[in-house]
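Running low. Any example?
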Amino acid sequence: MALPRRGKKQDAALMMEINTTPLIDVMLVLLIMLIITIPMQLHTVELDLPVPADSPPPPPKEPRIVSIGIGPQTAIQWNGQTIDLTVLNERLAAAAIQPDQPELHVRPDALASYSTVVHVMASIKQRGLTKVGLTGQEQFN
């Protein structure tokens, strides 16, 4: 039984592929070392926070709600009291200068004139009142 001999044909065929496994291992070790050695950057902001007082804060005030109803034939109501446009403008001006403006709930009737609703909304906007809401939309569904 003879052992196979290496001939020149086997020596001539060199391995032409590079073994990349050790290269990848070294690169991963270097990457881990780089991640560990990078200093952590902490972004901090110094704030002077208020010291809590011994007394609890006052309860929030309930907002004052004014209901403005608009009925058919230019009928306008302020909290259930029927008024005309000049009185409405006076009351809106008085509400606008108050430090704590009331919430205005505008409720137009289904038969109300569109021009009256637009005039009331324009008066509210002219006075600079911002807490305005339209209520009663369920009657239009």
About this structure: Strands lie at 65-70, 76-78, 81-83, 103-108, 132-134. The helical segments are 8-12, 21-37, 85-96, 114-127.
